[in-house]
Amino acid sequence: MITTNRLQQSRFARGCRVCCCILLLFTGLSLCNVALAGEYSDREAAQQVIAAAQEAGVDPGWAQQLIDAAERQQSILDAISRPAEKTKAWYEYRKIFLTDRRISEGVSFWSDHAGSLQSVAVRTGVPAELVVAIIGVETYYGRITGSYRVIDALATLAFDYPRRSPFFTGELEQFLVLAWESGKDALALKGSYAGAMGYGQFMPSSYRAYARSYEGDGAPDIWDNPADAIASVGNYLEAHGWRSGEQVVIDGVADDPDPAMFEGGLKPKKTVAALALEGLEPTDPLDPAGLATPLRLEEEDGVRYWLGLQNFYVITRYNHSAMYAMAVWELSQAIAVAREGS
């Protein structure tokens, strides 16, 4: 819930900005628009968000106070314009996550939470090492969960990032509902520059749809309770179609494939047999009638090929990037091997 002190601080800050504008007028400077860039209260789009939250049961006065407290963050707009998946080659991206330290800390996280991981694996069919790897990639096992206030991140992107405003406007609405229903201090919750939260970096809509309490009671605490975070990641993957016991990705051998083959998106659409006719075959036997996604990623010594299967596609539902899914998969396998050898 919004605390009195935080609201008073927010009102004081707004008052200070108004005073600054008055002072600048006297000094001949015209910087009021900059000084007030974080004020969203009077925008029509903000009022629409409040109205949508009200329809979901949120008190509109409370929602208005929360929007009043939101502040524009230029660093968020800078960060979202250069995601690593779009600025790095695969071999560079891979080096971020496949490190000795991240692998060893993954083994430690698994040991510390072995009971929860085993239980969730049994419930969902999602291997423990995969849940560990996602949490490892997302937040370094809960150590780096983001320093931005979620309300600032979502308001900034909803109202000042036109390219993806509809998505973040929806997430801002979901956040208001989430905070209202859970009783969380909405101004204290922090996350990534995109508003993702907790060990597994759930967006508000994903939290409301897929977050689960490990014990099955109360609002899931993905911020401070690793068991709830583990249960939520496992449930997310299961809900998106994880197939227990099936393979994830297979190495491929390419014979002059058409580059257009790799531009069809992440969802498996072509059969293994059809891909073979187009010049990409698996190195291990696969059902010729099974569906797969052709993958081509740049390594330091050239291009490497794979066939992504249904479970690979499920990982991309967490982050719509083949490089992300490959990093998660390779990290999961490295952690499993290291744990067996420890």
Question: Layout of SSEs?
Answer:
Blueprint: H1 4-26, H2 32-35, H3 44-55, H4 60-69, H5 74-80, H6 84-87, H7 90-97, H8 100-112, H9 114-124, H10 128-139, E1 148-149, H11 150-160, H12 165-182, E2 190-191, H13 204-210, H14 226-239, E3 249-254, E4 270-271, H15 272-277, E5 280-282, E6 291-299, E7 302-308, H16 310-316, H17 322-341
Antiparallel strand pairs: 1-2, 3-5, 3-7, 4-6, 6-7
Can you walk me through this structure?
With 342 residues, the protein is α+β, with helices and mostly antiparallel strands. It has a domain at 4-69 and 147-189: Helicase, Ruva Protein, domain 3 (Orthogonal Bundle), CATH 1.10.8. Helices cover 55% and strands 9% of the residues. It is built from 17 helices and seven strands. It has a five-stranded antiparallel beta sheet with strand order 4-6-7-3-5. A two-stranded antiparallel ribbon has the order 1-2. Helix 8 (100-112) packs across helix 10 (128-139). It is globular, with a radius of gyration of 23 Å. Residues 1-38 have low confidence and may be disordered.
Quick tags:
342 residues, alpha+beta, Helicase, Ruva Protein, domain 3, two-stranded antiparallel ribbon, 17 helices, 7 strands, 9% strand, globular
Strand content: 5-15%
Largest sheet: 5 strands, antiparallel
> Structural class, please?
alpha+beta
What is the topology, as strand order, of the major beta sheet? 4-6-7-3-5
Quickly give the CATH architecture of the domain at 4-69 and 147-189. Orthogonal Bundle
Order of helices and strands: HHHHHHHHHHEHHEHHEEHEEEHH
Could you tell me the CATH topology label of the domain at 4-69 and 147-189. Helicase, Ruva Protein, domain 3
Name of the CATH first level of the domain at 4-69 and 147-189: Mainly Alpha
- How large is the count of helical segments? 17
**What value does the average pLDDT take?**
89
| Fourth CATH level, the homologous superfamily of the domain at 4-69 and 147-189 | Bacterial muramidase
From the alpha-carbon coordinates, what is the Rg to the nearest angstrom?
23 Å
Helix percentage range: 40-55%
